[in-house]
Write a structure and sequence with these properties.
- By secondary structure, the protein is an alpha/beta fold.
- It folds into two domains: 67 residues, no CATH class; 102 residues, Metalloproteases ("zincins"), catalytic domain (Zincin-like, 2-Layer Sandwich), CATH 3.30.2010.
- Helices cover 41% and strands 23% of the residues.
- Strands 1-2-4-3 form a four-stranded mixed sheet. A three-stranded mixed sheet has the order 5-7-6, with helices on one face.
- Strand 3 and strand 4 form a beta hairpin.
- Helix 3 crosses helix 4 and helix 4 packs across helix 6.
- The chain starts with a strand and ends with a helix.
């Protein structure tokens, strides 16, 4: 479905956004990687409600767009063989910390992912790491690899997972913040 381009006056100036009516339950506001503002709304939602949300969230929109402008662009991804090798090395570096806890070495899958740095399929015995990680510094690759390996012990992000991450990588939260900022 093609969206409707709208402009709303806010206390920070006019905001242009794309409005899309979709079969969703909530209003979903996002700023894309190119800085475009997009809002998906339920079919029963009024345009006035959509415009009001844009006005209420204008500070968040401005901050998100500013963060995009300030972000240092990542270098281009390495070729697939180099990418796989970098991610295999990350898993190999952190695996010894979970091996004594009973985690078997998982199969590593590597692919481009749109919204995740990695995921764990603990029942099937494999993890998937995002090819984009190959462009990140080694400590961030290690953080994601360990994060996915710890999911073999704790399947959610609850207190047990967090305690295990802290025990194995005390600065994991700092690395996570760095990764989210890149």
């Amino acid at each position: 479905m093609v969206g409707q381009l709208r402009q709303v006056d806010t206390d920070r100036g006019p905001v242009t956004y794309t409005l899309e009516r979709k079969p969703v339950k909530n209003l979903n506001l996002r700023v894309t990687a190119s800085g475009e503002v997009r809002l998906s709304i339920p079919k029963h939602c009024s345009v006035r409600q959509a415009d009001r949300l844009i006005q209420e969230r204008c500070a968040w929109i401005s901050a998100a767009q500013e963060k995009l402008r300030a972000a240092v662009p990542l270098p281009p991804p390495p070729d697939p063989a180099v990418c796989r090798a970098l991610l295999e090395e990350a898993v190999a570096r952190v695996y010894p910390s979970v091996q004594p806890l009973g985690v078997a070495m998982p199969v590593l899958k590597v692919r481009a992912m749109r919204s995740q740095w990695g995921n764990c399929h603990w029942r099937q015995g494999y993890i998937t790491l995002n090819t984009a990680l190959a462009r990140c510094p080694e400590p961030l690759r290690d953080y994601v690899a360990l994060h996915e390996l710890v999911h073999f012990l704790h399947h959610d992000h609850g207190p047990g997972f967090q305690a295990q991450m802290t025990a194995l990588m005390p600065d994991w939260q700092t690395r996570r913040r760095q990764l989210r900022g890149s």
